[in-house]
């Protein structure tokens, strides 16, 4: 191991500290920098091999499933289940949750689609969870006359009311007048964000009689027979927790409320709350249906999910990507006494990248840009991982992507309003700029004194940090 990472320095046994400053720096490198740097390389090498093995394993599994049909499926007779449900008329109580946050472009379409679901009206509750924060005008319109004349005065009301919550509430009241059991819920805070809204929604008194809950994102518009195509699966198998199918966009699935409670409910510790809940439910032994697929999660698969998905992909991958490729390798260039093995520094990450990109060949021309900006994003992901593992109370406000639905088609003739540009100082990200300067310095050093041409990568990577650092990637939020 010593010969693998250590290159014998050409220095004398006795150092003359009265000599040149280069000799002093060489002594510091050998005695103080090399030992911890060698340990860091060993750790990164082990983590890189863990990523490599996991990626190769997943590639083999995908190939087996695709070409050899190794996946097992359980066939359900959906039509027979639907006929049995209609004959017995024992319809379960279903809760439909629609979490919203300033969905000014899609709220009418989403609420309308959910309220049009074909299911007995006395066995369906639509719960609109509105976390909108438009504080220009908080208005609650309870006048019966306005609600009755809503269709005629809708354009007039739209011009007068700028409060997002009032608009959503008006849309809910319109469907209440049509006989749909709609519950409009708001909060005084946004604790837990979407997960917090879903959790508080399940705590309402009228939800206690509900057996199943459907969650539709605000940009999802389900088909009218969605419940008829999903509820029978849950009635047939009491060990089934979730029914979900493949969708073009949006999150949609029907849960057994008992499974949610058994898994510990919705947690706001992550922005992927649906996946977090599904993993916890699977570890509890609940089953899932995805396009006809029914399978019990074994102990091996539970351990594999914890190791491969959480540990390797969500912790190791971020740390290796940033610390190894953006910190350790540049430092090694400035410490020539440390030998950096090419298989670990070049061949292993290249193989991982090729395996990752093989699933999206049509985006192959963006591969270099993807690698560079993934390395930049790993800086923030590594920081978030450390904060999460340490249980720190620091959290950043997430910028929610505005959902436009098909509003762009409806407003194609309307000229867009030009937004005021943020000040240049507010767009600067000094952490990225510092990393860019560091990598640029190492690149120049390698051009002057190096022999391995690593400056090509370093120049490109520093450019990616500079692009992000001056605010040309992402959304700038004014202070």
UniProtKB/TrEMBL annotation:
GO cellular component, one term: Golgi membrane
Cell compartment(s), UniProt: Golgi apparatus membrane
Listed transmembrane segments: 37-65, 316-338, 344-373, 428-448, 454-475
Keyword NAD included in the entry's annotation: no
Main location as per UniProt: Golgi
Highest taxon above the source species: Eukaryota
GO molecular function: mannan synthase activity
Keywords, comma-separated and alphabetical: Glycosyltransferase, Golgi apparatus, Membrane, Transferase, Transmembrane, Transmembrane helix
InterPro entries: Nucleotide-diphossugar_trans
SUPFAM superfamilies referenced in this protein's UniProt entry, alphabetically: Nucleotide-diphospho-sugar transferases
Protein name (record): Uncharacterized protein
Annotated source species: Cynara cardunculus var. scolymus
